[in-house]
Amino acid sequence: MDLSQPVEENYANPKTCFFHVLFKASALGFYILSALFADSFVIIFVITVVLCALDFWVVKNVSGRILVGLRWWNEINDQGESVWKFECLDQESLARINQKDSWLFWWTLYLNAAAWVILGLFSLVRLQADYLLVVGVCLSLGVANIIGFTKCRKDAKKKIQAFATQTIASRVSSTIQSAFSVV
What we know:
The chain has 183 residues and is mainly alpha-helical. It has helices at 14-37, 41-67, 91-95, 99-125, 129-182, and strands at residues 70-76, 82-88. It is globular and about 80 Å long. It is built from 5 helices and 2 strands. The termini are far apart. 75% of the residues lie in helices and 8% in strands. It has a two-stranded antiparallel ribbon with strand order 1-2. Keywords: Golgi apparatus, Membrane, Transmembrane, Transmembrane helix. The chain crosses the membrane at residues 28-58, 103-125, 131-150. It comes from Corchorus capsularis. Belongs to the TVP23 family. Golgi membrane protein involved in vesicular trafficking.
């Protein structure tokens, strides 16, 4: 093996990456090409929204957990308030997350939302308010995942920092205790 050449990292989870991209591409592709397939706004709306809903579910429950080690959900507590819940892998497992998988996850999440914004602008320019409804639903699903995973990533970083601080403090404390117990 030639060590002078950099080792190119492959996708650790190619099937998950494929499905992560598949539903985004199929929803966008169907919406863009729908003029060729259907004249009915209802059919276009239903199929596009179902594809976006499948994408939302796959990202939130499967690819987010596998590709970046994060999971989020929202609950309503007893007082009727919305409460965000987050799960992340432990620090050791997060360190082993494949960078290529992570890169694909985050970039497709943001690029998908950007594509829906652009399609919304086209619908606005063409004065097609009904198609703005399709774009609005799809964009809101994408943005919900962006917000959920971004909050989850920030929460994971806080937990890792707290764990590191606690570990350092306990090591310093045990070192000081052992130093004084020797005397």
